[in-house]
Amino acid sequence: MSSLIDRAQVLAEAMPYIQKYSGTTIVVKYGGNAMISEELREAVISDLILLSLVGVHVVVVHGGGPEISEMLKRLGHESRFVDGLRYTDEAAMDIVQQVLCGKVNKDLVAMVNGHGGRAIGLCGMDADLFQAVRLDERYGLVGSITKVEPAVVQDAIHNGYIPVVSTVARGTDGPTAYNINADTAAAKLAVALNAEKLLLLTDVRGLLTDPADEGTLIQQVRASEIPGLIKDGVIKGGMIPKIDCAVEAVRSGVRSTVILDGRIPHSILIELLSDEGAGTLLTV
């Protein structure tokens, strides 16, 4: 009986959050361990479907770095990174497009549909969703998004689908496709959709005052505090571009962004539908 009461209390706790988020748009950037581990993948998919069933407009933006690296390796190409971004030459861009827009995207769509959800796969080039120019010659065919046309995503939401978006953009400065950082793409899309919240699934607890101690989680931070945290070395390395995306999103109209621990099963539901939260909340 006690376990049934506990379950009822969880549902009762979730109710005001369901009321708060029902009818709003939540953009989830999906990658890292949450994408590789079977257990975590199952948890993420079920979270997305549940949110959709209670009226939340869920949009998924995914990466696929490990899958791209594996395919490059199979074909005899070495993965190379510059400032944390994958160097993408023409041969690598073909593989990025095939893996992201093809296998990874369609596998995710099939998994959502196989678990009772309604998902539809989109590529950043569909209906000119993401338009970009070359970011810098030293990164190769890595793009900087110049425009987002969200109509195709809005249409999918309107028709009851969970849009699953891969991060390849049409180049507007030449006849090419560009590889886009998934955090950046998710932030830009969240702004274009006037999203309530952007969730960036990561492989860390969130922002920590001491990176070696997960008990030092910063549960909430304002955008104005970020430069000081970078100066003090609290935010460094690969977390800096992720935080930059989060700051841009909240300063451009997204209500809040969460750096969310994707290693925790059902971290999305814990963050959205409970009093506890599961990461670092960033607000303007």
Largest sheet composition: 8 strands, mixed
The number of helices is 10
- Whole-number mean pLDDT: 92
Helix content: 40-55%
Description:
With 284 residues, this protein is an alpha/beta fold. Helix content is 42%, strand content 23%. It has ten helices and 14 strands. The protein has an eight-stranded mixed sheet, sandwiched between helices. A four-stranded mixed sheet has the order 7-6-9-10. A two-stranded antiparallel sheet has the order 3-4. Strand 9 and strand 10 form a beta hairpin. Helix 4 packs across helix 5. The protein starts with a helix and ends with a strand. The mean pLDDT is 92.
What's the helix and strand layout?
Layout: H1 2-21, E1 25-30, H2 33-36, H3 38-53, E2 57-62, H4 65-74, E3 81-82, E4 85-86, H5 90-114, E5 119-123, E6 130-134, E7 143-148, H6 151-158, E8 162-166, E9 168-171, E10 177-179, H7 182-192, E11 197-202, E12 220-222, H8 226-231, H9 239-251, E13 256-261, H10 267-273, E14 279-283
Parallel strand pairs: 1-2, 1-11, 2-8, 5-8, 6-9, 11-13, 12-14
Antiparallel strand pairs: 3-4, 6-7, 9-10, 13-14
